[in-house]
Amino acid sequence: MPESAADSLLLVACLKLTVDVNALRMLPGSPVPDLEHAPMRISDFDECAIEEAVRMKERHGGRAVGVSVLSRPAPRELLLRALAMGLDEIRIVHAPGEPLDPLMTAAILAKMVGALPGWRVVFCGEGSVDEYNCQAGARLAQALDVPCVACASRIALDGHSLRADRTLEDRVERVECPLPCVVTVAGEACTPRLPSVLQILGAGRRPLVEMDLHGLLPVESLRALRQAGAEWRDTFAPAGARRGIRLEGGTPEEAAAVLVRLLEREGSVHS
């Protein structure tokens, strides 16, 4: 990439803070997950988006800025972790109580990205670990009226275009599109770096900018997005019944033989 282009290269990484699905617990006596007290983390796929944006910055120069829409207050250490991975700045919008489905999320992100003059590439995760709708990136590209490359497993910038490989089930597809554009990063594209404690502490000196939701979208637009978006009805774990069968006494070989007969009777295994 020419030096003049590198000097003005502005890359954007979208990051979603989700509940840590590996630490999710159910409410006592209920199949409903305790989302209110669940710890939060950066979505795995969005860590890949951050990593790709930072790699492009290291390779071509310029700046990498993170943007995020938050439904509830975010632990500061998570935002510092994203900055410690190499982002130069993070901009956040608080949207408590809003139905942050892909339609509304993309609309807010489009306004945040539009407030960054001269941006060239927006990196998104291909999905999120909590919902995995895989819509936000494509909807963001539509809102910005730019091309979208989805599920990229290898990304390269060349002058005024982006080249990417998309690993499909039976082939690898190589695509190229002009800048500016949006690219959603597949989970296998990279291994996100692990910032050290010192890097996380040092990230506190980088800008963390809070933007006003109503300054980006007027009340009428938010109302229309609420009416047009998906309605979240309920979240619950599927019921699972335990057999409660206990095998007592006998040798391990005898217990194994009894277990096999029970599984065969239920059709779970076939001899």
Describe the structure.
It is a single chain. This protein is of the alpha/beta class and 271 residues long. The protein folds into two domains: 3-228, 3-Layer(aba) Sandwich (Rossmann fold); 243-271. It is 32% helix and 24% strand. The chain is built from nine helices and twelve strands. The strands form three sheets. The protein has a seven-stranded parallel β-sheet, sandwiched between helices. Strands 8-9-10 form a three-stranded antiparallel β-sheet. A two-stranded antiparallel ribbon has the order 2-3. Helix 4 packs across helix 5. The N and C termini lie far apart (63 Å). 32% of the residues are buried.
- Going across the biggest sheet, name each strand in turn: 7-11-6-1-4-5-12
If you average the pLDDT, what whole number results? 89
CATH superfamily of the largest domain: HUPs
**CATH topology-level fold name of the largest domain:** Rossmann fold
Please report the distance between the alpha carbons of the first and last residues. 63 Å
Q: What is the total tally of β strands?
A: 12
Strand content: 15-25%
* Helix content percent band: 25-40%
Ranges with pLDDT <50 over ≥5 residues? none
Largest sheet properties? 7 strands, parallel
CATH C-level name of the largest domain: Alpha Beta
Determine the number of helices (DSSP H or I, runs of at least 4 residues): 9
Shape: globular
Q: Quaternary state, please?
A: single chain
In terms of structural class, how would the helical and strand content be classed?
alpha/beta
Computed Rg: 23 Å
Tell me the number of structural domains: 2
CATH A-level architecture of the largest domain: 3-Layer(aba) Sandwich
Order of helices and strands: HEEEHEHEHEHEEEEEHEHHH
